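Preliminary data (for renewal application), coenzyme A complex.
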Amino acid sequence: MATKPEIPCYSPGLAGIPVAESAVSFVDGQRGHLEYRGIDIEQLAERSSFEETAWLLLYGELPTESELRTFNKALTHHRRMKFRIRDMLKCFPESAHPMDSLQATVAALGTFYPFPKSLDGKLDEQTVHHVCVNLIAKMPTLVAAHARMRHGDDPIPPRDDLSHAANFYYMLTGEEPDALTERIIDVALIVHAEHTMNASTFSTLVVASSHADPYTSISAAIGSLSGPLHGGANEDVLKMLDEIGSVEAAESYLQGKLARKEKIPGLGHRVYKTKDPRATLLQRLYVELTERLGSDPTYEIASRIEELSKQTLGKKGICPNVDFYSGIVYRKLGIPSDLFTPIFAIARVAGWLAHWKEQLGEGRIYRPSQIYCGEHGNPYVPLDQRG
Ligand code: COA
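Predicted structure:
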């Protein structure tokens, strides 16, 4: 008697299927708790800087004073972009989304920094370190340059005397940020820097598992992050809040959406079944900002949506995620909404690279299987006999 072939467990979206062992970060979705290398995100947001956090993610421990000094120096040294990349940016249409521009220019960076490809995927430490520094250092320059050049303005060259966060703001606006603005951007970068296994991190690992070069892998991750179900949701949240227009209109808007079974951007998460701790941190930053700049209706509408959704979606564990309040913070700083996801990418590249490093020289090329549900043995019908 023929034995039935064993059907492997199939989980759409790979939900609950581990695809790697990792020590980079940890999420407890029930408690709303996030750690980078064992350190609570709240502590990092309060006490660390993006540069220090990036080192922590890449090397597993907080840097010593001299390690941090050398790392900062390397990051500032590699901020500049090649004039050919600048020329490439000039060629994009004015309407190009900044995420598409970022994805293309990051892939193009790889053409300038040839990467040793090998079957065993083994790399020397220097090469790996240089790739990490180069990508983390250059991505803010690429985003800021595109943001200016699409309006016909010259890009502003980076400055070596500013922090990662302050330099990004300076390249974008031509102005040095005040201390509060710098800290808010820095904390936003810290909280977006890493988040265990997700679509974009997995994209990095899938591409890198063939030992393709890391610029290609990070470019794939940027593509993945751009979607509205992932990082692109922060832009959609602001679109929604603008569409609602007033606190009074929030209730009927939400009811209408739910009745039509439409999703609310910025709510829900595969892992968190309570409020995302990053949403709480970003909301706090907004409140800090309003002490200086005053509140505005967008935040009031967002709070109302959060409150109303508790009674309906909250019961199902669908709560505000990282994207719910980030856009409101960025808008308050005068940053255009289509730059929200690129800022997410500027931060997340640290996490992507930490996972890339962790996987180097290990593991196998990703080659999942499928459950074939098509037909067999169909005849080839010549063109003149097809109905
Ligand atoms: N608004 C309304 N309902 C939502 C929802 C939202 N934002 N997010 C999930 N749901 C509902 C789904 O409609 C589904 O309901 P059903 O069981 O009645 O069919 C259920 O919750 C499960 O949703 P699903 O999309 O299968 O969950 P997931 O784990 O695959 O997806 C997200 C997680 C993040 C993709 C999803 O919550 C979402 O699309 N959120 C909005 C986009 C967003 O903010 N993305 C950024 C994530 S950081």
